[in-house]
Amino acid sequence: MNKGRVIVGLSGGVDSSVAAYLLKEEGYEVIGLFMKNWHDESVTLSDECPWLEDNNDAMLVAEKLEIPFQTVDLSKEYKERIVDYMFDEYSKGRTPNPDVLCNREIKFDVFLEIALSLGADYVATGHYCQKSSFATSTEIETYQLKAGADKNKDQSYFLCQLTQQQLSRVLFPIGHLQKDEVRKVALKQHLVTAEKKDSQGLCFIGKVRLPDFLQQQLKPKTGTIIEIPSDLPIYSTSVSSENDLEYLSKKIRYQPSDGLIVGEHNGAHFYTIGQRKGLGIGGNVEPLFVIDTDVDDNTIYVGQGKAHPGLFRYALQVAKDYIHWVRGDFALNQGETMKVNARIRYRQALQEATLYQTEENLYVSFETPQSAITSGQFVAWYKGEELLGSGVIS
Q1: Which residue of 22, 69, 141, 351 has the smallest Cβ count within 10 Å?
Q2: Do residues 15 and 116 share a domain?
């Protein structure tokens, strides 16, 4: 029985390969589509040619599964929606998450539109997450985005910006499996990707030298590195008013006079909060971590050790225009609060937190202080296994 037409985003990896196989076994009409989103190999590591190798592997998988296959070039859209946005954010001293953006703007927007134009009922990917649905009292279908069964591979965070409309058209065939189970399926079916290593680096670009990538548009500019001593005042943990939330969510702004110059850097916009590598400074009792950057003054502030108080905050802020609810029926009104579990980066263990909705902002207040809360990144919040919403950190 034909259960409908599905276009699978075949990336050339084992996960999407097995996703395509499972869908065909379930009775779907499956078409494989490889997205070529990057041409410039000057910034990729010399021993990798990501898109060409991946495209070839995707084609071989499609041949093995006896499904139609084609390649589509989305490099123009990728540059406009992802790369240009990344350059702009880094120039402002913020750190964007290209994987979240790639899913929102490319895989489940441009790719989805192409799939629908080809008569597809659904698109499918090899993400480790799960989807379910239920009908409301008014018979409206509501879709739930849930964590993958493999907690070490759960990728729901990367999909935190999806909408109900997008979820209605998406399938996640491997979300109920463990990674080793996926590889076993691929081996049993003799898929060329069965033992291929997982891809690393920027979505669709591959492993890159990020400074080289950014220097395409952001020029080096020498500045000072200033070390801040660790005997700083620590934030209060009490929240009794909106003013407390605003205070707790603001990162400490340092001045050059607060510490000592310990080195030079080639541009504050190339560094991010929590970064350890690339400073080129040794000889300390503990390694140095970036605790703040000032792109206006082109200054980097660092502190010794991962327990340096300058790395930690109890709360973060999401501006009203950047709040996104996957489940709109959970959206908070002004003055309302909600107990949730939240994370500020992929693979971070979920943290107990409280959402506070004000007129202009949503605040996320954590039970324990969080390290390296970074402007431009995404915070996602959950109830149990379900991801309810997310936002861009101010």
Answers
A1: 141
A2: yes
